[in-house]
Amino acid sequence: MKNKIRVLRAERKWSQAELAERVSVSRNSINSIENGHFEPSLSLAFAIAHAFESKIEAVFEWEKPVR
Amino acid sequence: MPSPRKSGAPLQMALLAVMILAPLSVLIAIPWLKEQPDDFVFLYSGIAAAVTVASAFANSILSDRQLDEWQRSNARFSSQWGWAAGAGIVALLIAVPPFRDWMVATVADVADVADVADVADPDQQLVILAFTFGFGGVVLAQGLCTVVLSIVWTTWKSRPARDPS
Fold first, then answer.
1. Average per-residue pLDDT in chain B?
2. pLDDT higher than 70, residue B120
3. Which ipTM score applies to this complex?
4. Pick from A7, A45, B101, B151: CA 20 to 30 A from residue B68's CA?
5. What chain A residue is nearest to B6 in terms of C-alpha separation?
6. Largest CA distance in chain A
């Protein structure tokens, strides 16, 4: 799953820690999600999109898993 | 919604202190316990073990409440594989002669048994201590492996992006 968290954060000049604080998770969570190494639950994805005041599809893009 | 991050730090620190002090009290009291009746020793160490397990259980529940989903994934991975690895490592170590000799000598020393080779009539204290030490060794190895795997998982998940966007 691709995401635009890094870009959206940069636009708002938010650090990973600041976004983590806004969605009540650890900074490690945001770092791993942002780098594509951890897929958030649907509720966390919505919470992140809500923090950016965006729709979920504007933040996350689903990719078909490669088998 | 993401997990709320509740703070239970003072209670957790108190429980951690109990987890350390209860078994420590048994270790410190070993010279004195050797002079006490067996029933008292079993009762004392049993209570200490029950208190340790209960406080560890309560602490784990409090800790789990504060975890987010990334941390829960870490805990699930590291405990699942750490427990298996820890048990496996102890089983392998028992097969290594120097470790086995050290283990037998340590148990014999604590049990105050001069001849540990008397298989036909084993000392009851020695057998119980051997089981206790074996169980303790497995738990310790599992704990260490879980910590190591948790660090590995954290490092792996925190690596730079494959395709920075």
1. 86
2. no
3. 0.86
4. A7
5. A24
6. 37
Other CB atoms within a 10 A radius of the CB of residue B159 amount to 11
Structure confidence by residue, pLDDT tens digits, A32-49? 999 999 999 999 999 999
Give A2-61's CATH code, choosing from 2.130.10.10, 3.30.70.2520, 3.40.720.10, 1.10.260.40: 1.10.260.40
Stretch A1-17: mean pLDDT: 94
A6: nearest CB among B71, B156, B165: B165
For residues B71 and B92, give the distance between their C-alpha atoms in angstroms, rounded to a whole number.
30
Question: How many angstroms separate the CA of residue B137 from the nearest CA in chain A?
Answer: 32
Q: How far is A65 from chain B (nearest CA, A)?
A: 15
pTM comes to 0.74
Structure tokens at A23: 């969605």
Q: What's the CA gap between A24 and B131, in Å, rounded?
A: 45
Which residue in chain A has the smallest CA separation from B154? Answer: A28
